Amino acid sequence: MTELNPKQEKLKKQVTSPFKFGLFLLTQLPMGLVAGMRLRELDQNKCVTSVPFKWLTKNPFKSIYFAVQSMAAELSTATPCLLAIEGHKPSIAFIIVDLKATFGKKATDRVYFTCEDGAKAFEAVEKAIATGESQTATFKTVGKMKDGTIVSEFEFTWSFKQRSK
Q: Could you state, in order of their start, the residue ranges of all structural domains in the chain?
């Protein structure tokens, strides 16, 4: 497992603090705050996020709207990417280049998105630095309700590139 640099450790502490994460959502992703998104767990390999089933997140079919699920799913893959790019000079840019999703069951309770591909972000960043070329990595995240029912699965492909000096 890759050791975190001091800036990565600081970022991890900030985003895993409920108060500081709430401030981040307020200033950078206000719809996430309105929807009630939470960051539950984060390390170099795994990230867990959640989104509640409530009046603001539901659709006419009495389940969590697909776009709300997508937002929480993306967060579970983006946060390990943010951690991996932190502290590099010149900095690393990253952006989604592809998305695939399947919805198997109605999401009628809080959904927890688990991405266990965090190591891919660190590998892609290191390769982008070593080669000077953009690198892509695909991250899978699975959305489950607390009873274990899988409601959705997403694959986000992120592209990483070191910025010019």
A: 6-162
